[in-house]
Amino acid sequence: MEPSEYTPLPKEAHEYIDGLLGSEAERDFERRLLGNPELKQRIDEMQAARKLLASVAMVAPPADFDAGVFER
Amino acid sequence: MGAELKAVRTAATIAKPVASPRMERFERYLNQFRRPIYSYVLRLINDEGNAEDIAQETFVRLYQELDRIREETASAWLYRVARNLVTDFIRKKKPVTFTVLKGRGNDHDDDEGGLDFAAREPGPVAQSYQNELRRHIDSTLAAMSGKFRDVLVLVDMQKLTHEQASKVLNCSVKTVSARLARAREFFTNRLSRLVNIELK
């Protein structure tokens, strides 16, 4: 991963994405986003990318997985 | 120890309906984490047979250490053991690079509500749209260095908290957060070159 390949978002944006801002700070941040459509667009894209990542996260193990555990 | 687990299981089955609280606890963890741990290991090594073996060994170790594991740390413990086993596996075998999982089915295919991903360049006609997207995701992850991919997989795929991921990776929460920020930005930027990401 090359550092030049990304442009850092403010730390607060990541805290917002993770739901780590307090309710007041979150409201403040959302108000500021209204005046910064470019930042809002980037956050929306990041949220969408995360959702896509999560959508391919889980793979079902083989049906005999448990039997293999108990046989070991 | 595996024989012991098998014997306990067999005894529990024969002696139904009474199963030991220990076995009940173990089976609860097995039910809860079977799929996440298998998926996590498979994501790291892209080898179904060995992923199954490593994931199973993770649960055998869980059974062995069960009495020493606290409820609140069980998740991080499982991921850490699985990751350590993967590391051992890679050391003993050949250097295994993170590679692309091609066209694997999973049970979350319908979990993309509100998203519309349109490929800029159509893939082969025979390849499904979903598989094409999955391939782009995997290739994007493969382009990342391990320490950044680790946090992205643990937090944004496996849904661990930053604190849990820090325990798995044996680093500070601050380090997890910093790496995660960079990883997300890289992933989003790189993926957006391959697909259009639009919110409906």
Query: How many beta strands in the DSSP annotation of chain B?
Result: 2
Report Rg of chain A. Answer: 19 Å
Summing up helix and strand content along with how strands pair, one would put the structural category of chain A as: mainly alpha
Q: Report, as a whole number of angstroms, the end-to-end distance of chain A.
A: 39 Å
Instruction: Say what oligomer this is.
Output: heterodimer
Largest sheet of chain B: 2 strands, antiparallel
* Unreliable segments of 5+ consecutive residues of chain A: none
Average pLDDT number of chain B: 79
Structure annotation, total helices of chain A:
4
CATH superfamily of the largest domain in chain B: RNA polymerase sigma factor, region 2, helix turn helix motif
* Whole-number tally of structural domains of chain A: 1
Question: Can you tell me the CATH topology of the largest domain in chain B?
Answer: Rna Polymerase Sigma Factor, Chain: A
**What is the H/E order of chain B?**
HHHHEHHHHE
How many strands of chain A?
0
Distance between the termini of chain B: 53 Å
Low-pLDDT parts of chain B are: 95-126
Provide an overview of this structure.
The complex is a heterodimer of chains A (72) and B (200). Helices cover 62% and strands 0% of the residues of chain A. Chain A has 72 residues and is mainly alpha-helical. Chain A has one domain (3-57). Chain A starts with 10 loop residues before the first helix and ends with a helix. The relative contact order of chain A is 0.10. In chain B, helix 5 (129-142) packs across helix 8. At the A-B interface, helix 1, helix 3 and helix 4 of A face helix 1, helix 2, helix 3, helix 5 and helix 6 of B.
Main features:
heterodimer, A: 72 residues, mainly alpha, B: 200 residues, Rna Polymerase Sigma Factor, Chain: A, Arc Repressor Mutant, subunit A, 2 domains, two-stranded antiparallel ribbon
